[in-house]
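Milestone M4 deliverable, item 7.
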Amino acid sequence: MKTATDVTHCDDLMKALGGFREYASPVLQRWGSHLADRLGTGARLLVAGNGGSAAQAQHLTAELVGRYRDDRPPFSALALHADTSSTTAIANDYGVQEIFARQVAAHGRAGDVLMLLSTSGASANLLVAAKGAHRLGMTVWALTGPAPNPLEGAADAALCVEAATAATVQELHLVAVHMLCESFDRSVERRMAVERRRAQPDRWTAVTGKDGV
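Output delivered:
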């Protein structure tokens, strides 16, 4: 038998999703386009999160290295928590707060993007990673729960999800991941279309073998 509490979770999600659609869309369109430009010229995306946010981070990297909808070239994206040997070794030798920062120092380069996911926006290991990324000249994005929060302030840009519970924030983070991938794929396709046009000789050159004047 259903009780009132059985649908509370769905009600919370529907309520949060209404506002999310409006404020998240322009941010994720910008991020997707920017990420396509960066990764298309050889940069990489590093992603980190804790717990459920780690799962969301790995979901994003899987979509970029594999594919989201249609076939396209793979792009470099690393979920930092997924290297369990490095993560546990760093935690053991340097402390949990360094598990992502040390990997950023190892893998990150100027021009790369670091994306940090946190429902609280207060995870110490993500804040340390953001500082390390900035020292390298990386761009830092944050996907967090309600603002204000420390990670929002530590990032170059942040999408702060307004929701009542951490569970709902995480669910909307997954929506954000898919919206980012949609924007990324559209931008990649536009970039590839431009490159194809540049690679084709114009009609005059194709017919005469001479450059047009």
